[in-house]
Amino acid sequence: MDTISSENNNSLLPMIAAILGGLAVLLAAIALFKLSSVSKQLAKVEGATTRIESIESQVSQASAAASDAANLRNYVAQMERQIQQNFTNVRNEFNTVRTEINTVKESTARRPAPQGSATAGGQGQSATPPVAGPDEYVVQSGDTGVKIARSNGVNLNDLIAVNPDINWNRLRVGQKVKIPKK
């Protein structure tokens, strides 16, 4: 004897198959729903990944810019130090020149006046007003009032006094200069 008859067996089998089929469809629907949900989450994750990569790129660029700024700041600081050192050197040179000028002034102030050029009031002017002599000098290239006075053996102040119309800062080649009487 069979415990399960073929009649009972035939009627349960389709019912079990239908239940299993229904379960399979239900599981497939749940899986499809989950797959759709996972797919949406995956799209969100890909979008987030793209944003993260963009942010990483921006961070990298910002880091490079910060490094460049630091290098530029160091360069500017170095240039400031160099400029300050140059200003210090120039100030020292000016002080040296000022000292030399003062030394020259002191040495010329102590030097006695040349013979025949008595000074009135210590101003370097002769006691009597200078008078132009018959001689004239024609200005050559590179001449100055001092050179002309020395080459003719006269005082520079006397030379300037007898030539009031001459601009001694702009002597011209060929210009005639009156020589004072000795």
Automatic annotation (TrEMBL):
The chain crosses the membrane at residues 12-33. SUPFAM superfamilies: LysM domain. InterPro entries: LysM, LysM_dom_sf. Residues 104-135 are annotated as: Disordered. The lineage of its organism: Bacteria, Pseudomonadati, Verrucomicrobiota, Opitutia, Opitutales. Keywords: Membrane, Transmembrane, Transmembrane helix. The keyword Transmembrane helix applies. PROSITE patterns: LYSM. Gene3D superfamilies: LysM domain. Residues 135-179 form the LysM domain. The keyword Iron does not apply. This is LysM domain-containing protein. It comes from the Bacteria. Pfam families: LysM (PF01476).
